[in-house]
């Protein structure tokens, strides 16, 4: 069951109609009543045509500020909702939205293991982007790592993934943007995934025989890790020999990377 964790706010503008460009809406939510381990705070707006609440795009949760932001092309009635995630029972548990998906078999393999979770409506949402915190938590669970409880980054003090990030940091998997910032709610990129997985597996060799059409788009700090991850088949490219290193990873891609890294 979903739970409302903010006031319902109605926003209006002087002239009816949609905006020329999307605008960002940010609402305060009740931090005290929300689960600190929740990664499913979402900003919804009421769709007058459908007569139902729909989720905004580009959701960003800021636990320190106590806000949830999203983008929309028109004003409406808005509210923050905490959606309950449930672990699907049993290996190969059936999700309602993965049939025919390219990652269907990979998702089924990890379903019910505690590494990945589905949603209370029975869906998995394989094409939804995944945050740095979510991927870190999944990788830490897959590897069975534990935390010493120390706080590693200033922006992780009250975050639901604090323990997982601490475990990843102490095991040399992550470094953060700097000594104070991890940006847990930023969506993770494919090259960031590559670095984390290569660090986790402690792969250390020079790969020179890999070539992609967009290889020049790989960040300098991620180049070696991306080459190693692709050489080991952990991360693969797209058609036309594209790697898309800076593209945001999806839940399906994250599941596949973790499965390949741990098999």
TrEMBL record:
Boundaries of every SLH domain copy: 90-147, 148-211, 212-263
Pfam family, any one: SLH
Domain of life: Bacteria
Transmembrane segments: none
Entry protein name: Peptidase M28
Organism: Paenibacillus vortex V453
